[in-house]
Amino acid sequence: MTQFSIKRYLPRSLYGRAALILLVPIITIQLVVSFAFIQRLYEDVTVQMTQNMVPQLELLLDAVPNGEGALSEAADTLQLGANLPAEALKERVRFYDLSGRAVRDTLQSSFPALTGVDLVENRKVVRLAFDTPQGMMQVSFPRSRVSARNPHQLLVLMLATGALMTLIAYLFLRNQLKPIRRLATAAEAFGKGQIVPYHPSGANEVRSAGGAFLNMRSRIERQTQQRTLMLSGVSHDLRTPLTRLKLGLSMQPQDADTDALLGDVGEMENLISAFLDFARADATEELEPCDPADLVREVAANAQRAGQAVTLGTMPEEPGEMKLRPMAIKRALENLAGNATRYGTNARLSVEVLETAVRIRVEDDGPGIPDDKREEALKPFARLDAARNQNKGSGVGLGLAIAADIARSHGGTLRLGESEALGGLCVDLVLPR
Fold first, then answer.
1. Contact 339, 368 (CB under 8 A)
2. β-strands 347-353, 413-418 pairing
3. Does 428 or 21 have the greater pLDDT score?
4. Cα–Cα distance for residue pair 424/276, rounded to 1 Å
5. Average pLDDT over residues 145-154
6. Could you tell me the pTM of the whole model?
7. Angle at Cα 101 formed by Cα 100 and Cα 105, nearest 5°?
8. Worst-scoring range by mean pLDDT, 47-51, 80-84, 235-239, 244-248?
């Protein structure tokens, strides 16, 4: 049995929830006050005023048997309009006229001879029809004698004041939430590798959170710079002895042992280059407008010139620019295309423009990666020897990790799946537009 939860019906944004917290008490108070006001003024006061009219109407009815002169004198004294004989009246009261209903019910309970009450023809006049021994008599008097004058003014004033205070609260709430939105924008941009100018403002709690974010951003930037500088220095320091070692081995008589050592030196150079690429990522590159389809075509052309079996699949018909780090994206695609041709025979690159993102797909006809090992494959230095073909070298284990890191730095993601067309691994690089 599904358990009811009110959370699914609540607004998801902080602004919507704050507005709800603000409006619910105001609307509740308006309803309670309105109900009490209507109950007190529209019913109780109207009933009391109508009951005060009952003795006057009784005096007028008592004067009917005494003749027309006595009836006219009594009507003038009581300031009532009386016509005898007259036509019968139909009972007409508007459905939203609450005080009119109270007047009708009170008079009907007091006068069994009352045959009609008309409150529609003239809103300011009450018209009554009585069945007397001398015939049908119509009586009229101002509505103000049985109903409070302008009773709607208090409701209008209350609603207008509530609307004004709601508008003021809305403006104040928007001003209070603006620093939170600025903080969220700066944090989201930093997650994509962008540094957006941000200065803490707003309430003390928001300022505290903003200051903590700035401190965290500064520490992460320092750590990234230190990591890049350290690995750059290590790479530079290692390349020099490796170059001397490679030069010394090349001057030795060539045999199987020498060739094996030269292969080891070459593999160490590849490892150092991969480590440096992973550490550097796209930290030093700025965003710039570019067409991802052009980057894909360039990567495919470079791979084809290098003798790799890389082809182009579905491509967008019209160019579409978006802000990217082109060198980082090309590095990620080169790693993915290199993995595809290393573990498979053919690779295919395609681009699809979605509603909110651009999807770059790299497919191969290799053995693929099982579902239970795809998450592990995205970790640095992961080598899935049991799942991948080892005939062409196992690589360093950083290709997918570098591509995933570059995707995250753009606010996107890297997804692994199975290629329906080629039967091997399918890698989707999804970048938000």
1. no
2. unpaired
3. 428
4. 29
5. 70
6. 0.52
7. 120
8. 235-239
Q: Is there a domain that residue 163 lies in? A: no
> Could you read off the pLDDT of 159-208 as tens digits, one per residue?
788 788 878 877 888 888 888 888 888 888 777 667 788 888 887 888 88
CA-nearest of 330, 296, 295, 323 to 311 is: 296
Cα→Cα distances 291→85, 169, 333, 379, 406, Å:
93, 45, 14, 29, 17
Nearest to 99 by CA among 80, 111, 117: 117
Are 334 and 306 spatial neighbours (Cβ–Cβ below 8 Å)?
A: no
Is residue 237 domain-shared with residue 289, that is, in the same domain? no
Which two tokens mark 161? Answer: 């004041």
Distance of CA 354 to CAs 221, 292, 359, 433, Å? Answer: 33, 13, 7, 9
Q: Count Cβ atoms below 10 Å from residue 419 Cβ, excluding itself.
A: 21
**Whether 271 and 392 share a structural domain:** no
Domain that holds residue 118: 14-152
Out of 116-120, 126-130, 146-150, 353-357, which region has the weakest mean confidence (pLDDT)? 146-150
Tens of pLDDT, residue by residue over 16-50, are: 777 777 778 878 887 787 777 666 666 778 888 88
Instruction: Grade residue 280 by pLDDT with cuts at 50, 70 and 90.
Output: low
Strands 310-312 and 347-353: parallel
Buried b (16+ CB within 10 A) or exposed e, 255-290: eeeeeeebeebeeebeebebbebbbbbbeebebeeb
- Please say whether the beta carbons of 252 and 258 come within 8 A: yes
Q: What is the CATH number of the domain that holds 53?
A: 3.30.450
Q: Is residue 166 domain-resident? A: no
Residue listed under structure tokens 């080598």: 383
Q: If you search the block for the tokens 């009815």, which residue do you land on?
A: 61
| Continuous H helices in 115-251 | 152-191, 204-250
